[in-house]
Design brief:
It is built from 13 helices and 18 strands. By secondary structure, it is an alpha/beta fold. Strands 1, 2, 3, 4, 5, 16, 17 and 18 form an eight-stranded mixed β-sheet that branches. A five-stranded parallel β-sheet has the order 11-12-13-14-15. It has a three-stranded parallel β-sheet with strand order 6-7-8. Helix 10 packs across helix 12. The N terminus is likely disordered.
Length: 422
């Protein structure tokens, strides 16, 4: 970017409040990511949207010489945007992450976000409301801990942060109230569903079971009839199978992303986490997205002996992650980047995933900037640079396909046609 362009941007930011709305721009000399390569183009923006021709009036021209333009990144799984904390929003924007998905939240989260999220000067977020599980199922442990800490009340559990379903009759009774809370999507919990009967009836498995998998087809049918999508938390390969055969739209977590009952010794049973090729093919056929959440696990393995696992087991687990990721990729499954890291985000996630070597940098960039935003906001024209797409972009100071660290060298941010402060 030329010095004159930088001075122009600074003048625009000072003269035009972000709330005043989008202007019209001519953006020449940039190299724009089309999912495979960077293509030299001139892009025109009018009223927050990319247009095919130069507008009759152009408010300003921004010379993008030397810049590599990518769609803003997404975070497909985190729980840190409820309440719209300003520091968290800034951290996302600084990293170039504009789109965030929160699976499991209080029912009022979307209402409380009005005016704070989903505006040009902030991130865009969606909330599931309370997730669907079983009595004493995950995330009941989180609720119990937060009640002990004083950050939740006893009444914040069943019926609010989660819905502890007993059977189909109980689900049908609760469903109108769940819909009345206006969730953006529905989140269901599966935890070692192949052992559901055993775990649901044994207090030793408190928090380590989920919804009865027999209920899942009914839940998916009702949710789709309401025009909403279903995201499924999974732990085992059997959970993955149950989710994809029931027709969920998104699978959250890779099987084996954490050890059973937080006991690292259980990670030696890698077979229970190996995704079946037939399930991967079915996920691809049905357009099911799979969200990673492997960053913290990968970082844990990288601790070496401090992880409490011998080198052979660490290699087994790491190889499992790589096999599953490569299977999904070769089957044509859409893989989205999500961290489930309350103090982190998808930037830390993708950097950790990169160390596994399952994907090249082109694939990683496509997942983060194109696939992930589309599973968060599937009905919007985002993560694209064609006429009619929202004018949201990151101008990078270097080629991320040459050095992936350039994904964080962001020289300019535009959201729906509005320039964001550096």
């Amino acid at each position: 970017m030329t010095d004159s362009s930088l001075r122009l941007i600074a003048a625009l930011l000072l003269a035009t409040p972000l709330s005043s709305g989008a202007q019209s721009y001519e953006l020449p000399h940039g190299r724009w990511f089309d999912g495979n390569s960077f293509v030299a183009r001139t892009i025109y923006v009018d009223r927050g949207v990319i247009v095919a021709r130069r507008p009759a009036r152009v408010d300003s021209t921004i010379d993008l010489t030397g810049k590599f333009i990518v769609p803003p990144y997404g975070e497909a799984h985190n729980h840190n945007i409820e309440g719209s904390p300003p520091a968290t929003i800034k951290k996302y924007l600084d990293a170039g992450i504009f789109y965030v998905k929160d699976p499991c939240s209080f029912p009022e989260a979307s209402v409380e976000a009005v005016g704070k999220l989903n505006i040009p000067s902030s991130i865009d977020g969606v909330f599931s409301g309370g997730c669907l599980t079983s009595v004493d199922g995950h995330p009941s442990g989180l609720v119990r801990r937060n009640i002990a800490r004083g950050s939740m009340k006893p009444t914040d559990g069943d019926g609010r942060f989660l819905h502890a379903l007993v059977d189909s009759t109980d689900f049908e009774r609760r469903w109108p109230g769940i819909l009345a809370s206006k969730p953006d999507f529905i989140k269901v919990i599966l935890v070692y569903s192949e052992e559901h009967a055993k775990r649901a009836n044994d207090p030793a498995y408190f928090n380590w079971h989920g919804m009865d998998p027999a209920l899942l087809p009914l839940v998916v049918a009702r949710t789709h009839s309401a025009g909403l999508r279903v995201s499924a938390h999974v732990e085992s390969a059997a959970d993955f199978h149950a989710a994809v055969t029931a027709g969920v739209d998104e699978i959250n977590h890779m099987p084996g992303f954490r050890p059973d009952r937080d006991s690292v010794s259980t990670m030696t049973r890698v077979k229970r986490y190996e995704i079946a090729p037939a399930d991967a093919r079915l996920a691809a056929q049905r357009g099911t997205y799979v969200v990673t959440t492997l960053g913290e696990s990968t970082d844990f393995l990288a601790m070496g002996d401090k992880a409490g696992l011998d080198s052979a087991t660490r290699k087994q687990v790491r190889d499992l992650y790589v096999r599953n990721l490569k299977l999904l990729r070769s089957s044509g499954v859409r893989i989205a980047i999500g961290s489930d890291a309350f103090r982190g985000n998808s930037m830390t996630e993708i950097m950790s995933i990169r160390t596994l070597g399952a994907f090249d940098d082109r694939e990683l960039l496509r997942m983060w900037s194109i696939v992930t935003p589309k599973t968060i906001f599937p009905g919007r024209h985002i993560a694209c640079f064609d006429a009619g797409c929202e004018a949201s972009l990151l101008a990078l100071d270097g080629d991320p396909l040459t050095d992936f660290k350039n994904t964080q060298r962001i020289g300019l941010r535009m959201k729906r046609g509005v320039l964001l402060s550096p």
